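Quick log. Single chain, no ligands specified.
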Amino acid sequence: MFLKMNAFKALIKKAYNTTGLTVGNDGEGIYLMGGYWSIWLERTMMPKKAKAAIIELIGSIPAPGKAAAFYKSDDTNWEERDLLPEEVYRPDTTYFKTAYKDTDIRIRTCRRELAVLQNRSTMECVILPEHIVSMIDSGSREKEEGPVSLPLGNNRYSIWWQNEACTLKCDIAIAEGDPKEEFILQELEKWDFTEKRKVTC
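-> predicted structure:
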């Protein structure tokens, strides 16, 4: 798993305590979903600490072919869900045509922290929650894991990271009409962060 363990634990716990944590078992691995993100973990390569963190929250992982949404509640704290199709949480990203680069630029306001990623072909800049981007860590992989893909997209709504052990999806955030955020993104699109140069028209 190419995710920092402490950040992974905090992410699933926050989902469980707020909007709910959806967990599904497709037989090959399990997927976890919050409101704007999803993580798939391959069954045999899942770190023991990650599995323990999930079980600590929800009690037990659904059986193969099953899915459920779990909530922090004094009453029944789970509801059965239909198992989602694989392309929702674990598509084959090798066919995705749009690659992104993390610009290492962060936008911080009183409401949120955002990471800026740039489309390597068009120079368009998009924003994602900073805590999702910062949890990606190649050094956290198990010894047998392969490299992590570049951030990839197949539409204008989500960005994916993937290797054989883990798939992470995060929905692209919206500037919400904030003129400062929109201005920053427009100015950053004048630069090619892959080639480290200003874009020439």
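The chain is about 20% helix and 30% strand.
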